[in-house]
Amino acid sequence: MSFFTDLAHQYIDGEWRPGRGSWDIIDFNPFNGEKLASIPVATAEEVDQAYRAAERAQQAWADTNPYARRTVLEKALRIVEEREPEIAEAIVAELGGTHLKAGFELHLAKEFLREAIQLALRPAGQILPSPTEGKENRVYRVPVGVVGVISPFNFPFLLSLKSVAPALALGNAVVLKPHQNTPICGGTLLAKVFEDAGLPAGLLNVVVTDIAEIGDTLLEHPVPQVISFTGSDKVGRHVATVCAANLKRVVLELGGNSALIVLDDADVDYAVDAAVFSRYVHQGQVCMAANRILVDRAVEAEFTEKFVAKVASLTVGDPADPATQIGPLINSSQAESVSRLVDETVESGATALLHGRADGNLVSPSVLTGLPADSPVLQQEIFGPVALLVPFDGEDEAVRIANDTPYGLSGAVHTGNIERGVRVGQRIHTGMIHINDGTVHDEPIVPFGGEKSSGLGRLNGESMVEAFTTQKWISVQHGRSQFPF
Fold this sequence. Notes:
Low-confidence stretches: none
Structural class: alpha/beta
Strand order of the largest sheet: 14-17-18-13-12-20-21
Shape: globular
């Protein structure tokens, strides 16, 4: 596909060029195995070149009138809107997203771009009083300088854009490393959008590479002051450790093991719809997905019957078919891992109400119940189409089970009494929770992030200002200070 081969390059200092590494990252369609592109990897030297280009370009960009920066972002939004069908097809091909998922991702991407446009004008300084006579304290909001962004494979266009656009809007330069399974949608496609929007060379650099080639160069390099990472908690811990050793700030958006709670007074049919979407959207490859569905025993039988029936009706197949609701997992390793997890959980005592099977990278949905309380699967993130149904007796037990996880990203509570739902939600140790809705939500101005092993910091809205700027105190003495010697 020419779309992919045209973008199968490194983008450094405004130039499209091949990487100088001795091996290639091969970009495959996860559904049919078609080779989309072959990209020679960037070396550690090229990562250095990308960071140095960003460093050279950043100060002039920071000095640019924010209204001018905003104009570039406005052009980027128009380009995304004009090329939306082409970008949607790329999402379907590169990551196995269904048409529904591609539309969902692009809708959010445009909303986040609109917010980034406003963000260019958001930073505000302060003048603070001083106990010293004649002194004026000015506190400025200034860009951090250069931001390193590492994005995942599941929503690559959105989750790269989500950090890249605000960082640029606020006067920073960026070096972006997309996931090796989605180098185009998560990386060079963004570079092309911003290049065509008139972003000056050097401000956005994209390096397609792998830790096997560059080690921790992306994290240890002296230029970036902030690293924004989205991915697994295992890798996130490593990122945090390396950055702490190098005194860099981090924003970590990591995994989840969210609970969707169905109380005894819930609208069962509606709760079923919310739970099915929350668990199976994009084949369950979503950090906010409802891994665990907790159901009060008073409605367990009705909920389970309707839930299993709805899941069994989902269409599994080619993501290019608009009728498909469940497409492939990102690669064979993920498909094998999810299938093995289901088999092992059933062997250890769980009951499979639906037992999904793998056909290549396609994995049909599973629904498991009767899990032993100490089942390891209850504690982990499942990045695949597997739902765990867990019964409970009353609110207190629901809260205890929901909190019995090392994660704390999202969640939901279904109830006929909104304030009851809010009270339960306040007791769940999570960064986000939704009453009478699904667990998968992201909005441009609402703080997004998790607790515990689900991450550090927040993104979106004012949180972007906190993430990608710093404060600088300049005092002015209008009179004369008195010194003791």
